[in-house]
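Hi everyone, sorry if this is the wrong subforum. Our group has a chain we'd like a structural model of before ordering constructs, and none of us has done structure prediction before. Sequence below.
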Amino acid sequence: MSFSISELRPLRIGELSIFPPIIQGGMGVRVSRANLASAVANEGCAGVIATAGAGLFEDHPGAEFTNINEIALQKEIRTARSLSKGVIGVNIMVALSDYNRLVKTAVEEKVDLIISGAGLPFNLPALAAGTNTKLIPIVSSVRTFNILCTRWKKQHNRLPDAVIIEGTKAGGHLGYSLEQIAGGTVTLEQTLRDVLAYQSEKNLNIPVVVAGGIFDGVEMRHFLEHGASGVQMATRFVCTHECDVHPAFKQAYLDATEADITLIKSPVGLPGRVIRNAFVESIQKGLRVPFDCNYQCLRTCDPDTAPYCIARVLAEAAEGKMEQAFAFAGTNVSRCNEIISVKELIRKIVLEYTQAHASADR
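Answer:
Right subforum, don't worry. Here is the predicted structure as tokens:
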């Protein structure tokens, strides 16, 4: 990049250096793909491809589900690599029924990072053994971080290369109860303090990346000054020219107000933060959309009781069919007011950081 900010340090994960210290969050289904990830990586940050529903699974028989996603993921990684020499990672949800196969594909393609949440990735080190791919779990508390580190150390004799702690303000599926989210009893600041204290107690030095509700350089500066090594941002990257999702999806972000952000109970058993629309209001009133499940893409979903197919709904959203779908988004989506390039967005975030730093020094 053409700028150098002395106060802003790179996020270092092993031999990888990410500067500015931003990981672009992986957004499925088919929201963050090769085009976005490569553009982000070209600016020095870490670009991330979401693996959930990577392929056009809805157009094929269920028996082909896993193969379609594997082939699509391979293509996305190779395309991103052809467009960028920067840091490219993938986000693979533990709850995916084809989790093991997707991890195998990712490590065979030599991605720089595998980020894994929506469950604790206890077996990830075994699946990536013998590779140089960095393994980054997503946790929501110091308790789950402790459980994961203990299990990885005992069973695989290793620790995470970095950890992402995701707060309650994130978009999409959340690792908290509705009561925790509504009550505001869990803060990202407190979880960060807890994780850093745990590391100090155990003499660990694992880079901590914070995620969930971080929208600008001011918030990035706040968490870096409180001990985070980097930030993960997703919502703001949707409103870029390079984001792979349909323009109608981006328009939903631009049109969203604070009042439009709502929580739903996803068919997979987790709360989800979405932008309210007519379809969301219908499912909140009990609408059921009958479907035949040909693939059981998420292990936590029970097709016999689910009111609708979350995978198909998100696939429809990615194609811009918002009248029968919804968009996942973080709490700050109402602050999105323009579509700009990734390059301009990164520059704006860094400018926000430096202005906040200068203001604090006065």
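For your construct planning: The longest strand covers residues 134-139. The radius of gyration is 19 Å.
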